[in-house]
Amino acid sequence: MRFPALRRVAPVMLACAFLAACDTTPEEELPDPAVQVRATTSTYSCSQGRSFTVTFSDDEEASEATLVLDDLNILMEREKSATGVRYTLDDYTFWTNGETAMFEGTGGLALTACARISVSGGEAIVPIAPVAPVETAPATGGEAPASPPAPAPAPSPAPATP
Fold first, then answer.
1. What does the chain look like in DSSP terms, one character per residue?
2. What are the structural domains of the chain?
3. For residue 109, what pLDDT is reported?
4. Does residue 82 have a pLDDT over 60?
5. Which distant-in-sequence residues (6+ apart) come within 8 Å of 69 by Cβ?
């Protein structure tokens, strides 16, 4: 025997490799298709003559707003606010209360006295559950379709002639 220690270590190494291969921890959490997420998009016009859109997506686990202004596209998380609703990401803050809003960002960006001028959406953006196709009955008074006709019996062999 050339490597007696290998005989003792090999079973342990195989067991570790097997356990590592059996790891069922998902790489990333997949969204639950049973959770219904709704999205609403609002457009705001500000006193500085600029406008922007915000898409709000809300569910029981998270609340986010995606603000689009010129070439900015910012996904912000909802934060606690004494009044209204506030969303932040790093140096960006969007705050809304009823029909009014404001947006502040890096480089002295400040849009104040913004008024909501349109709102759309509210539809589900993640289906509640997959829908299977449904077969419909023919429009003959709601009766089920008739069974296909039975195949005709095979002809009996002709009698043998002497």
1. ---HHHHHHHHHHHHHHHHHHT----SSPPPPTTS--EEEEEEEE-TTS-EEEEEEEE-SS-EEEEEEETTEEEEEEEE--SSSEEEEETTEEEEEETTEEEEE-GGG-EEEEEEEEEEEEEEESS-SS---------TTTTPPPPPPPPPPPPPPPPPPP-
2. 38-122 (2.40.128.200)
3. 94
4. yes
5. 50, 52, 103, 111
